[in-house]
Amino acid sequence: MTEATSKTKRSKPSGLAKLGTRLKRRGEVTALDIDKRMLRVVHVTSSRGTAKVSRVELIPVPTEDFDLQNPKIVGEWIGDQLKAIRLTPGTVVMAVRRGEAVLKEFQLPPLKDIGEMASMVRMRASRELPFPESQASIDFTVTKAPTRQEIKAAKKEPSSSTNSEAKADVVVSAIKNETLDYYKTVAESAGFTLAGLGLRPMASYRALNACVPELKNGTVALVSVRRHEVDVDILIDGRLVFSRELSADLNLPDDCLELERNERLNQATKEIFRCLHSYEGSETYQKVDQLFVSGGTGLEEELCEQIQSGINTQCSRMPLPTGIRLPENKKEDASRALTSLGLALGFVDEGGLAVNFLSPKRPVVRRNEGRTKWLLGVCLLLASLVMLFSFRSRFEADAKAAYNSLTPQYTKLKKDERANKIIIRTGNAVTDWQNSATDWLGHFAFLSSVLPQCDKVYLTSMGSRRAGSNGILSFQLQAKDSDTLHSVEKSLRELGYSFKSVPHTPGNDRHGYSFRASFDLLIPSDFEHDIKENLKTNTPPARIEDDIHAKGLTVAPKRKDPRNG
Length: 565
Fold this sequence. Notes:
This protein is an alpha+beta fold. It has helices at about 20-25, 70-85, 115-130, 150-155, 175-190, 200-210, 260-280, 300-310, 330-335, 340-350, 370-435, 440-450, 480-495, 530-535, and strands at about 30-35, 40-45, 50-60, 90-95, 100-110, 135-145, 170-175, 195-200, 220-225, 230-235, 240-245, 290-295, 315, 455-465, 470-480, 505, 515-525. The protein has four domains: about 1-140 and about 170-210 and about 320-365, Nucleotidyltransferase, domain 5 (2-Layer Sandwich), CATH 3.30.420; about 215-320, ATPase, nucleotide binding domain (Nucleotidyltransferase, domain 5, 2-Layer Sandwich); about 375-435; about 440-565, Alpha-Beta Plaits.
């Protein structure tokens, strides 16, 4: 397992005009470190994996009317100072004091997934932090991971052994949300966006690598001296295993008496010895091989001599940075701004800041796949319904418009349809008549030659219709007597017509025709008639004398109207 990589947030451009500037400065970072005495500014550029320190500035903090606890006042002052030295900060990182953070060292299973490791860290931290997890920003770094050989060897151990499982050493760092908000407000008041918020001990360790690049193994103690506090950090093979912030009063005036000066130095030395003794009682204790003292108070040489006199470990002043490029006239200033230097170098490193409270490593959010699928299905269903309703509304609108435009045409066509139906029915009737196999007119003419003369019978009605493939001739006769009707029936049957028995109904008319009968003659499909042949044996009926169709076409005289006399 490698050290976890922390994600950093970059400030968003305010417009297209700033886009090019941001792209040019993406390899640049400005680190700020402030305390009661000094603002330390380090500007670093990085290109192709090589870091270069371009600016190192030490700016004294006002001693009067300057409230370091007020982030707005601090931020406005920092912004003014950066403008005064004509430094455009670009990407800005800061670091919290050791005393503002809680550090815990855990031993956890060596998980490869950093998200799962973050979940486990938060679970452990929730039980051991002095404040609720929900009110804190928590980040961590893996300081030591077991090798494959150690993991395999641990698996071979009996399962009953409590120490059989290989563990990873993890340093957990946590700050309250109030502290995080403080630095955000400082950056906002200064006119820039904070890209990273690290931890001073981590920055000091990165600075140690820049000052003593050949120092990779062994146990090293780093004492960082400031006017009002002293940080003591212990590293084993590059891993931070112990860190404390000690209170100290080394803000000595220029006219300070030597007695008071020595007393304060002795008091600071005693606090450092107590801290080293506390480390000796820790589980991670290993004998310190080297001790370095760094700072810009001017008391570092004397403090180093006093520490050396009380321990058997080589104690020396932190040398000037040699592993990076520095401005020639700023090397001494760089040794007094090691925290800012380490913070900037750590940010431009490939892995970024080991601890970044602004963008801590996040636990993996385990989603309920079944619930997720159900919600996705519901969303898709709702989206489909919305689309359907939209299409329906549009379709209804289009249909209504089409209906309104077609209604006048439909009304006209309905009127034409009613008129056309009469024509169609008439045409169909004519077509059926023409296409029929029955010679209706021939049959009517044939019947005219068969029926008796009109002095015996006459027709009152006649018609024709179809019955399947056969035709039916319908007519009604008025006869003088019943014998004449029987004679007509007999003649029609002999000719081949089929019909039911015809009832003879008495029915006198004014002409003396006493009987009435209705006939429905069924004409077989194979029936053939021969009018000429029939006329040889049946003489056509003679016309009566008053027939208007008789020869000469005489017109019958008009009857007088009784009303006219």
